[in-house]
Amino acid sequence: MNPRTQAMTELLQAHRSIRRFTDRPVDAALVDEVLVQALQGSPSSGNLNMVSVIETFDPDRKARLHELHFGQPMVLQAPLVLTFCADTYRTRRWLARRGARLGFADLISWHVAAFDAVILAQSSALLLEAHGLGVCYMGTTLHSMERIAELLGCPPNCLPVTSMVVGWPAEAPPQRDRLPAAAWIHAERYQAPT
Prior knowledge:
With 194 residues, this protein is of the alpha+beta class. The chain is 41% helix and 15% strand. It is built from 7 helices and 4 strands. The protein has a 4-stranded antiparallel β-sheet with strand order 1-2-4-3, sandwiched between helices. The longest helix has 24 residues, at 107-130. It is globular.
């Protein structure tokens, strides 16, 4: 196995969802650098980059996010919450300024932006973990997306699709079990599970 493949395999195998963090601060400049690198290294449908990321370091804002994420303690403990948004607002404004047809107002556009945001989130997670930081995705984002968008000042056509807490790990949980390959990898067509 070549060194790059080995390094990537080790990084993927080392992933753990971290829910407890030290009180060591996270450098905002490092996070910005990671986000820029992640965007540059992630695919984007039509290269439209219909994503926005909102960084929340402020304890008062995190306290409100804590409520919106169903009281999960890691939101308060982690130094940073990243909210990844599907953002067609910026593209729609650009089209309007150029007098172009305003597309990006349908379900397909929403999916394109949402998938781009999730891809960016995963690229960011991998890079953050490569720097030694721990992350945990917040599945509660979709349940509270409108209220989170309001709290974070998102404009119309910009909605949160996933969030993650970020910090220096204070735990080393075991790797979680996953389904065996035969349960989810299908040859040529879907195979009903036994």
